[in-house]
């Protein structure tokens, strides 16, 4: 599978106003972590972490600040190496020495990292340029996504001239334009106000429905995790195994009906309890 940034011939929007209960992800794990451990000096941050993200699945990882969520993504991007364990993609081990450009993962970092002196289009190209794509080709590929991402007309602006929500969309565009099948999103909406966050969550689900990405999403926010995900995983504060793996029924509407669905509060309460227990 290599859906990448290709648009599916038959997009199956399941999170819109009328979700389709039958639109299950394809069988098989796109991403699999087995027994991952990582310490900084004598401080273990991750120990025996195993998880899977199925092809076409959105899986959220929640956990307290400092529990190692960003560290886990750094292991996936290749910025850090695990002390123990294995990362697999499509059933095959990812070579430990493979750098970001050779891995099937595209990463959106926790902070807004647009370069203030680069125009928006040039910011959107950075990931491609780092991957060795010539600048002109990179610009052409990125430019195609501006309209579908609601960013038409911003190409020649600078980051300071965009709202926070628009900047996050540029960061997201920069991530997906790399054409990788797995997206790693670290708190993509963390710094936004509630209304903009809500808008971007809906936007993400809409745009996701037209693509084949598998997504591992990190968030502090239980409601966001439930709304966006097929499954929510809880990372314990003290290094150890995943402390909860909570499936979210696929037929819960993720648009206007989300908060009115009676299944949502018990799911949130369960996750809250798991997170409290995972702090012990
Ligand atoms: N390069 C590093 N060197 C030493 N310690 C580190 C390094 N990176 C992270 N840590 C430590 O590892 C722990 C986990 O950090 P990490 O950034 O992964 O947490 P997090 O779960 O992403 O937190 P947050 O929710 O606040 O973003 C923290 O105690 C942090 O200080
Ligand atoms: Mg973090």
Blueprint of the fold:
Blueprint: E1 29-40, E2 43-54, E3 58-63, H1 69-77, E4 84-89, E5 92-93, E6 105-108, H2 120-124, H3 126-130, H4 135-146, H5 164-176, E7 182-186, H6 194-209, E8 214-218, H7 222-228, E9 231-235, E10 244-247, H8 264-277
Parallel strand pairs: 3-8, 3-9, 6-7, 7-8
Antiparallel strand pairs: 1-2, 1-4, 4-5, 9-10
This protein binds adenosine-5'-triphosphate (ATP) and magnesium ion.
Magnesium ion binds near residues 110 and 186.
Q: Percentage of helical residues?
A: 25-40%
Uncertain parts: 1-24
Mean pLDDT, as a whole number? 87
What name does CATH use for the topology of the largest domain? Rossmann fold
Total domain units:
2
* Fourth-tier CATH superfamily name of the largest domain: P-loop containing nucleotide triphosphate hydrolases
How many strands, what sense, and barrel or not for the largest sheet?
A: 6 strands, mixed
Which oligomeric state applies?
A: single chain
Instruction: Specify the structural class.
Output: alpha/beta
What is the tally of beta strands?
10
Shape: globular
Cofactors, ions, other ligands = adenosine-5'-triphosphate, magnesium ion
Beta percentage is: 15-25%
